[in-house]
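Q&A FORM
Asked by: J.P.
Topic: structure of 4Fe4S-binding SPASM domain-containing protein

PROVIDED:
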Amino acid sequence: MKHNVNEIEELKTLSEKWGSQPYFRCVVKQNRAAEFWGEIGLNTEEYKKMYDFKYKHAIETIRKGKAGTLPAYEIYDMVPFMEQPKDDKELAAIEWGVGCLACRTMMGIGIDGTIYPTGYPTTLTLGNALVDNFEDVLNSQLYKDIRDRKKIKGKCASCHHLEYCGGGCRVTAEYITGDFFGSFPFCWHENDHEHDIDDIQKKQIELLEG
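REPLIED BY: S.T.
REPLY: Here is the structure written out as tokens.
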């Protein structure tokens, strides 16, 4: 990831030239990726560059009517928003595809039956599919807390983008902070201000034209 973050526009163009759909996602800090994080992991500035790119192209895709959700650019894992949706259709598409999807549209089950809140193994688990009733898991307080973005702690808890962003990747946050509900440590956004409509429009123009 670190080695090609400055080539993503070229990679997108090449992918489309070959007739394939671009698919970009940041490396999650876990297992072997964590071991070699210094070589492949992104820093805060590189995360911002990556997500500016993904956000720009995802929004363009929605507005061209080519996407109802956003798998093509995988922006769901973390996007501190820089504009507001224009209408209900756009809002629905964005809400479906943005922010951490743990216990929202994805969960995981390990080979031993362990139920994880995401597609990656985490220290925090929800039970075991071999012995637990899945309906009980879905009705558990822990499951509800994971879905509730207001449960996020730290810097993200007071951020005005939290409902969209979801506090970033829960897997990486847990790995680094030790807390599944901890704030994402690589977010560049400082929540020391409020956006007014002029700020939103200016940022929208900068992002889509830049």
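FOLLOW-UP: The chain has one domain: 22-105+145-209.
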